[in-house]
Amino acid sequence: FIAGNNGKDVYVHSMQIKEKTLNKDLHEGEEVLFDIVEKEKGPIAINVQKL
């Protein structure tokens, strides 16, 4: 999950992490840019980019 600017957590799947290397892990405190899309089960993060 990613903490959004509004304080709510947003689900992110590793397939949505846009990384040139194979390392698609996210770590606590790491800053990212992302878009949010509303789905049936709630918001998800897409186009996730590490800063």
TrEMBL record:
Gene3D superfamilies: Nucleic acid-binding proteins (2.40.50.140)
Domain of life: Bacteria
InterPro entries: CSP_DNA-bd, NA-bd_OB-fold
GO molecular function list: nucleic acid binding
Domain CSD, chain residue ranges per copy: 1-50
PROSITE patterns: CSD_2
Protein name according to UniProt: Cold shock protein
